[in-house]
Amino acid sequence: MTDDVDDLPRDVSLIHWNTFGVASRAEFAARITSLHELEKLTARLHERGLPLTILGGGSNVILRARVPGCVARIDIPGIDIDHIDGGARVTAGAGVRWHDLVRYCLGQGLFGIENLALIPGRVGAAPMQNIGAYGSELADCFESLTAYSTDTGASSRYERDACEFAYRDSVFKRRPELVITSVSLRLSHTWSERSDYPGLDEMLNQQGGPRTPTRIAEAVIALRRYKLPDSRQHGNA
User: Fold this and answer.
1) Is residue 1 pLDDT above 80, yes or no?
2) Domain boundaries defined on the chain
3) Could you report the per-residue pLDDT of 49-108, keeping only the tens digit for each?
4) How far is CA 140 from CA 2, 92, 105, 214, 232, in A?
5) Local structure of 64: helix, strand or coil
6) Whole-prediction pTM value?
7) Quick one: residue 78, left, alpha or beta (phi over 0 = left, psi -120 to 50 = alpha)?
8) Phi, psi of 213 (to 5 degrees)
9) pLDDT-above-70 percentage for the chain
10) Which of helix, strand or coil describes residue 171?
11) pLDDT at 161
């Protein structure tokens, strides 16, 4: 990424940066792929007195027609697994697509987030609203996250209690200066079925066959696709 704000792309369309397809434009725009890039961009914007707007996958966001300062999309990649105690600590970069993480963990025989399949957005946004669906929520398997403060320039680790998780809520909704850069989950190699949520049990019965974590995820995907249109064709949250 450039060292000079003036070298960033200007007057950038954000229509493909939000799932509603709102025709918004940013004064400047940047893609952030590392903590170092975020630190550097924040410092440059502070020097110029320009505001910073953070985007992930652009879901659950309504953008203004013109966004002043710089809009930065968090694209920090990477998934790391540390196998411990019959399961694993899975740490993902904030820019990883949430559904890609669900599929990856299923492929590794790690369970706990299969009911959260096909939720739009990136990993970094998941703790902000404590995403949940079909009887599960992020807090159930959350261990910790790292967040960078655009006010102080410091990164800190936040464990579960510090996040103040509630129904579709967390402390990060009230702390916009904190930019989540990675999230760690504690998943298990032993599956505990959660299928008694209204609609999910019926879908599984219709599909037939033995119930497995992958079958749960497939049923959730089918339900979500039935209820919500593809955001690539019809804008939605």
Assistant:
1) no
2) 5-74, 79-188
3) 999 999 998 888 899 999 999 999 999 999 999 999 889 999 999 999 999 999 999 999
4) 40, 17, 16, 19, 30
5) coil
6) 0.91
7) left
8) -55, -40
9) 95
10) helix
11) 97
**φ, ψ for residue 128, nearest 5 deg:** -55, -45
Map residue 220 onto helix, strand or coil.
helix
One CATH from 3.30.2130.10, 3.10.25.10, 3.30.43.10, 3.10.310.30 for 5-74:
3.30.43.10
Between 185 and 210, the more confident residue is 185
Model confidence pLDDT, tens digit, residues 192-219 = 999 888 889 899 988 888 899 999 999 9
The answer to whether the beta carbons of residues 63 and 93 sit under 8 Å apart is no
32 closest CA partner among 76, 2, 67, 78: 76
| Nearest alpha carbon to residue 52 among 20, 8, 96 | 8
The structure tokens listed for 109 are: 């025989």
Handedness of CA 23, 26, 32, 35 (dihedral sign): negative
Tell me the CATH number for domain 79-188: 3.30.465.10
